Amino acid sequence: MAQANILIIEDDAFHAKILQRFLSSLSSAHILVAQNGHEAVEALEHHCPDIIFCDLYMPDMDGVEFIRHFSKTNLSASLVLTSSVSDDVQESVMDMARSYGLDNISKLPKPISKADVAQVLRDHQSPAKHTMTMIENSEITAQEVRHALLRDEFEPFFQGHYCSKTQQLIGAEALVRWNHHSLGLLTPDKFLPAVFKGGLSYALSCKMLRASLENASSWHTLGHHIQISINVSPSDMEHPDFADKVIQALDHARFPANKLTLEVTEVEITHDLGRALDNMSRLRMRGVTISIDDFGTGYSSISQLINSPFSELKIDRLFISRMSESPKHFSALQCMINLGKSLGLKLVAEGVETRIQAKMMEKLGCDILQGFYYNKPMSSADFVERCMLGATANMVSESA
Prior knowledge:
Elements lengths: L4 E5 L3 H14 L3 E5 L2 H8 L6 E4 L8 H9 L6 E4 L5 H13 L5 E3 L6 H11 L10 H5 L2 H9 L3 E10 L5 E12 L3 E3 L1 H10 L3 H21 L5 E6 L1 H4 L4 H12 L6 E6 L7 H14 L2 E7 L6 H6 L4 E4 L1 H6 L4 H16 L3 E4 L5 H10 L3 E2 L10 H10 L11
Parallel strand pairs: 1-2, 1-3, 3-4, 4-5, 7-9, 9-10, 10-11, 11-12, 12-13, 13-14
Antiparallel strand pairs: 6-7, 6-14, 7-8
GO molecular function: cyclic-guanylate-specific phosphodiesterase activity
InterPro entries: CheY-like_superfamily (IPR011006), Cyclic-di-GMP_PDE-like (IPR050706), EAL_dom (IPR001633), EAL_sf (IPR035919), Sig_transdc_resp-reg_receiver (IPR001789)
Protein name: EAL domain-containing protein
């Protein structure tokens, strides 16, 4: 490992010494040891760690408190939990850290082995570069988004949907990308904060709807009659003329309504349920599929799922990625699939990245799979080429 800075936060001198010895033998890093969260916070005033090994149960300031303090700094570092507390507590702390924007986090249960430390160093290796969090988002303003909408700089990229049983390509999800004039191709996490702040979600959704349907219509002309899925927010679904906009876009593109799926994200609260049900019911009568997206991570209640005219349930990638390491996530995944089946909903799993995950989701009864195991989001031209090469999944190698 290249020269780097490592911070160990551990109140037990024996465990700290063992970890320090392993790290010294595996890397040339500069290693600093703090006995509690307070000492670690003071150390951050003078040092910029690349990796932080953090115990959780400590006197004075515990690891949870330290993580909260660390999340407010402008530092970017890999965070590794080293603790003997129960797995469910560690999972909760990891979720807490992610909610604070600390995405590069893992755990290293005690007793610690040298092999485990070596693996952590491989996984968390990064250049000693520290950036302000949210810099990329702050560069984008609502005014820039307005101009980009006028200049048609937003375009749909497409990621395939595959039948879990046959592995055949049966659909695609449209995912918005921004061809920024100076920053290049931007993904939604870079500009959606500005979109929502400027009240431009509905305008962007309508533009994406038209562009996606036009692309999908051209695929149908070529003989590729696949389903197209488009994301909309609950606030879009509450808009008075949303159903009319969708119907007009379908008519303009000459695209069959029964080949369109609208994915309504679950991460927002529906404020005007009556208006949303109005639009959803009108669209369902036309044959449009309504899917509840990111299920299991938002605010929806079971009663809302039952009372709304959803015909598809899309399971959030969080449960797919963690089902093999967290019994709770696996149990929750099973419950969601059983619930969807009992309600007669089609089941979609997003974030499938390995063959093992694909096989497991098929075994559990999921109908449709999506993720990097099959392909990454791509431009319309590249997606057409994939379709023309054959509808059988051409998987990205798992080493990619």
